[in-house]
Design a protein that fits this description.
Helix content: 25-40%
Main location: secreted
Strand content: 15-25%
Domain Alpha galactosidase C-terminal: 323-397
CATH topology of the largest domain: TIM Barrel
CATH architecture of the largest domain: Alpha-Beta Barrel
Distance between the termini: 58 Å
Catalytic activity: Hydrolysis of terminal, non-reducing alpha-D-galactose residues in alpha-D-galactosides, including galactose oligosaccharides, galactomannans and galactolipids
Mean pLDDT: 93
EC number: 3.2.1.22
Number of domains: 3
Enzyme class: hydrolase
Number of helices: 13
Low-confidence stretches: 1-29
Radius of gyration: 22 Å
Length: 401
């Protein structure tokens, strides 16, 4: 009996150590780094590689002055374009546009915000800049010393290594990919600094099934977004069926937001923002925060829609039913509420009917429109509303008093 107890204790300790390293539990550094989907801003969608220390500081200031910080946007993320070359000691130096990354991180932190950065497991990033292959521990320590709070890790050129080393064996290729992400995760853990780990590998190998096991706090479920209604919807609506894989500390990521970049109409951008909120997706803005129109501000700062995305229950929404290009999605919320979104993917205004039983709602519902910010009364059985071309009507349902 004594031997069995000692063996059980040893196995428990080994399991705890494994979970700490693998990131599938709440031990150590992994303790809820992302209890709700991360919110912030990234350089990539609008500026691509045309970035500098001065630009990032200006965007940081605008994040505060625009009200985005108060609305919950926290991370200031520098995507590709900051990387210079490695020296003889393997140290990766930023380009001359970023003379002091530690000072930049301190500036971001001084505004009550967090600092995000980008690299990848391959020798080069997608744009050909130096990445972290063979220098994972060295880079992780450097990022931590700069005060980095969020790391986007982009597969890019590592796919060439996977192809060369797997010999065409898909299972072996997937194992190589998992090992590469786990290696950086362990390197981040070893720094002792809490760093959100954003895995960007485009949904390969059904990442939603194994992402938490290699330490991912969020993982891309798709290829890159672009600033068009067609591309946005092809990514967003393809998320149907993945809701069970999302939750506190591990989120599906259909890529950053394109709101405010000019390629979509206001109705299309409201669809974009609503769908991402229904999916419990990270809300990482990608526009120029210093040049926001009132229309853009009204979308990105819609606190009622943001509250759906950030709902503490942490359950993602999913498609409830569809009639051709007319889709109705539902998401359970804390306290027994529910978010419902009616999407019109047609090229003209149409009427869509919300059928309460078909979204799992029993009885009457008090409804509020989250874009008009108006209570619309008590719904019984169904509700029919006109939805504009490529638009959305998004409601919050509560128990009728």
């Amino acid at each position: 009996m004594w031997v069995m107890k000692r063996l059980s204790a040893a196995l428990t300790l080994l399991l705890a150590l494994y979970l700490t390293v693998s990131g599938v539990s709440g031990f150590g550094q992994e303790k809820m780094l992302a209890p709700t989907p991360p919110m912030g801003w990234s350089t990539w969608n609008h500026f691509h590689h045309a970035i500098s220390d001065a630009l990032v500081r200006a965007q940081t200031d605008a994040m505060v002055s625009s009200g985005m910080k108060d609305a919950g946007y926290v991370y200031v993320n520098i995507d590709g374009g900051w990387e210079g070359e490695r020296d003889a000691n393997g140290v990766l130096h930023p380009t001359s546009a970023f003379p002091d990354m530690k000072a930049l991180g301190d500036y971001i932190h001084s505004k009550g915000l967090k600092f995000g950065l980008y690299t990848g497991p391959g020798p080069r990033t997608c744009a050909g800049a130096v990445a972290s292959y063979g220098h994972e521990e060295q880079d992780a320590k450097m990022f931590a010393s700069w005060g980095v709070d969020f790391l986007k890790y982009d597969l890019c050129s590592y796919r060439e290594i996977m192809k060369a080393q797997s010999g065409g064996d898909i299972a072996k290729s997937d194992d190589l990919m998992k090992a590469a992400y786990e290696k950086m995760h362990r390197a981040l853990l070893a720094t002792g600094r809490p760093i959100v780990f954003s895995m960007c590998q485009y949904g390969l190998g059904s990442v939603w099934e194994w992402g938490p096991g290699v330490g991912g706090n969020l993982w891309r479920t798709s290829g890159d977004i672009s600033d068009s209604y067609g591309r946005m919807t092809s990514i967003g609506f393809r998320e149907a069926g993945l809701s069970k894989y999302a939750g506190p500390n591990h989120w599906n990521d259909p890529d950053f937001l394109e709101v405010g970049n000019g390629g979509m109409s206001p109705d299309e951008e409201r669809t974009h923002f609503s769908l991402w909120a229904m999916l419990a997706a990270p809300l990482i803005a990608g526009n120029d925060l210093t040049q926001m129109s009132e229309e853009t501000r009204s979308i990105l700062l819609n606190k009622e829609v943001i509250a759906v995305d950030q709902d503490p229950l942490g359950k993602a929404g999913d498609r409830a039913y569809a009639e051709g290009p007319l889709e109705v999605w539902a998401r359970p919320l804390a306290g027994g509420d529910m978010a419902v979104a009616m999407f019109n993917r047609l090229n003209g205004t149409v009427r869509i009917t919300l059928r309460l039983p078909d979204v799992g709602w029993k009885g009457a519902a008090a409804a509020r429109d989250l874009w008009t910010h108006k209570d619309i009364g008590v719904l019984r059985g169904s509700y029919t509303v006109a939805v504009p071309r490529h638009g959305v009507v998004m409601l919050r349902l509560s128990r009728a008093q």
